[in-house]
Amino acid sequence: MYNDILQKDDKLKEECGIIGIYDKGNTEIEHLTYYGLIALQHRGQESAGIAVNKDGIITCYKEMGLVSEVFDDKILNLLRGDMSIGHVRYSTTGESFVTNAQPLLVKYKNGSIAVAHNGNLVNAGCVREQLEDQGMIFTTTIDSEVIASLIAKNFKGYVEDAIMDTMDIIQGSYALVIMTNDKLIGVRDRHGLRPLVLGRLGNGYVLASETCALDTVGAEFIRDVAPGEIVIIDKEGIRSVFARNRADKASCIFEYIYFARPDSIMDGISVYQAREKAGKILAKECPADADVVICVPDSGTPAAIGYAQASGIPYAVGLIKNRYIGRTFIQPSQIIRETGVSLKLNPMRGTVEGKRVVMVDDSIVRGTTSKKIVTALKNAGAKEVHVRVSSPVVTHSCYYGIDTPTRKELVGSSQMIERIKEKIGADSLGYLSYNGLLESVGSEGDGFCTACFCGKYPIEIPELCGKHIFEGR
Asked: What is the rounded CA–CA span in Å between residue 104 and residue 115?
């Protein structure tokens, strides 16, 4: 029931957030890891975990809930060490139980390794079956355990060799932070689908999903981890090696549309500036005769500001977000879940009453939430509601770590824009063009995965790939 409700929510779901810290002189690594996870909380709210290494012994604590709910000073004081990794989870494979929370701690004949993973393997089922045939026992249902088990199995003395051997087997998206008895390691998949950055903290280093986590813990940004790169940090310093087979870069473009925090910088691109530029391009491509521009908070805010700047229509706050309400998909019934939409967003009558409103959102998935918001705005007195979307029409599912609905549930995969406009009750509807999206991130078509908009996948999807087997692309 839990996952059924979750699947029906009307936004693409977050991925996961990871962080790793190595600083032998720092006595508060566990607290810094906690703060780093708080900064990455937008990437996953189901579970949180921290693993620390003290004199070669790894200790891990993880639980269901938000970071601030899982950890307190008492627990953190039990997690003392001089290197650590942390994880916040939103499940894209594996059920939402504490047994599937991360980091994963795997013991083998030479010691222990802890692994935190953001992404999704497309061949995890096949690899898992092969390992089970060889006698390996799995304790979770997540693909991350396949990665951890392969690294442990392939470990013959040099962990980087074991990781490279593992990268030769696994297919899909992954950013990893790995902790051994004496090393902190960061890994990014060959296409760079999932983000990973490197920073300096005192005499040590930080690996994290986004630069906002570096800012929070006081680390200085050094660079992005390159696609296919393995970064090894230990008492000798920092070094890197690369996967044996390189591939074309294809970073997830939805990071810039929705997932990343706007104050993050990814692969040299400011997330905020990309969203604002998308709004400016959208205003030129899809103008509207209106009195005020509002946003669907929060990821739609920069695009709405850009739309207002380019169109000359004033920007104002038209929807108030209640930041203290629980996630709508955890409510016990569909009726209560739908009520949760209005609990989360409430119109500002003084802003919209008697006015023609441009409502800017980052995406439309099923259209159910958009319909409720348009209805609420009109009930608050808006004369007209013109919906503008700062991304192209989502037509295909993602297999690489974003929890998209099946294609038959994506309103854009089967219905034309005019029909979607009627479904959500808007007076007009306009989407950012595909070329406009590329322009917003400074691309001419290379360097990004845009499969959710065009169906061109950078990694071949096996026929028996989890939840979308029946889609028949």
From this structure: 5
Note the pTM of the prediction, 2 decimals: 0.89
Looking at residue 109, its amino acid is K
- Compute CA distances 460 → 158, 164, 278, 405, 451, whole Å: 30, 20, 29, 19, 11
For the chain, the maximum distance between any two Cα atoms, rounded to a whole number of angstroms, is 71
- Beta carbons of 401 and 119 less than 8 angstroms apart: yes
DSSP summary character for residue 112? E
pLDDT at 178: 97
SS3 of residue 214 by DSSP: helix
Residue at 167: amino acid letter = M
Of 157-161, 272-276, 302-306, which gets the smallest average pLDDT?
157-161
Residue 408 has pLDDT above 70, yes or no: no
Catalytic choice (16, 212, 295, 452): 16
User: In the chain, how many domains are there?
Assistant: 2
- Mean pLDDT score of the chain, rounded to an integer? 88
CB 29 within 8 A of CB 52: yes
On whether residue 164 sits in a domain, the answer given is yes
- Catalytic (active site) residue 16: yes
**315 in Cβ contact with 304 (< 8 Å):** yes
403: β partners: 13
Is the CB of residue 35 less than 8 Å from the CB of residue 216? yes
Instruction: Mark 38-73 as b/e (b = at least 16 C-beta within 10 Å).
Output: bbbbbbbbbbbbbbbbeeeebbbbbebebbeebbee
Any idea which of 110-124, 207-221, 403-417 has the lowest mean pLDDT?
403-417
Task: Please report whether residue 137 resides in a domain.
Answer: yes
Which burial class, exposed, middle or buried, applies to 220 when counting CB atoms under 10 A from its CB (0-12, 13-18, 19+)? Answer: exposed
201 and 303 both lie in a single domain: no
Residue 340 banded pLDDT, cuts 50, 70, 90 = low
Q: Would you list the DSSP string of 256-285?
A: IIIIS-TT-EETTEEHHHHHHHHHHHHHHH
Q: Do 232 and 338 reside in the same domain of the chain?
A: no
The CATH number of the domain holding residue 63 is 3.60.20.10
